[in-house]
Amino acid sequence: MKIIAIFAFLLIAIAGQVHCQNDTIKATFETYPDIQEYVQKNIIYPFEAIEKKIRGTVVYKIRVNKSGCIDSLVIITNPHDLLTEEVKRVIKSTGCKWIPAYYKNEPIDSWINTKAVYSIKGKK
């Protein structure tokens, strides 16, 4: 009996997720549909990181509130503080210029998972 109840719950949860996806519009930044593109175009590779040949991928997530402001930035992968601080600077510079996510025509808070890739040309 428990297995049937769990199975029914999972079906309801899956159906709810599909419904949610169809009625949700994700948050965007100004004319950039993808924040990763904006960050990659605006990060300045820290000189010290270039000298020390530091490279890597900063994985992070940001929360855009229903007013269009970033109210949280969570670093998931930090290859080096120099790289992470630059990502934070660029994200902070976006201010409250976000178009929030919408669910059923109402603005909502939402999370965006993304990354910034730092690489030195000619290095693998």
Instruction: Give the termini separation.
Output: 55 Å
CATH topology: TolA/TonB C-terminal domain
Shape label: elongated
Q: Any idea what the radius of gyration is?
A: 19 Å
SSE arrangement, N to C:
HEEHHEEHEEEE
Main sheet characteristics:
3 strands, antiparallel
Low-confidence stretches: 1-22
Summed up, the helix count is 4
CATH architecture annotation: 2-Layer Sandwich
Number of strands: 8
Percent strand = 25-35%
Question: What is the residue-mean pLDDT, rounded to a whole number?
Answer: 81
Strand sequence of the main sheet, in spatial order? 1-6-7
- What top-tier CATH class fits best? Alpha Beta
* Overall tally of structural domains: 1
Portion of residues within helices: 25-40%
Describe this structure in words.
The protein has 124 residues and is an alpha+beta fold. It has one domain (25-118): TolA/TonB C-terminal domain, CATH 3.30.2420. The chain is 39% helix and 31% strand. It contains four helices and eight strands, in the order H-E-E-H-H-E-E-H-E-E-E-E. It has helices at 2-23, 35-42, 47-51, 81-93; strands at 24-25, 28-29, 56-64, 70-77, 98-99, 101-103, 106-108, 110-118. The protein has a three-stranded antiparallel sheet with strand order 1-6-7. It has a three-stranded antiparallel sheet with strand order 4-3-8. Strands 2-5 form a two-stranded antiparallel ribbon. It is elongated, with a radius of gyration of 19 Å.
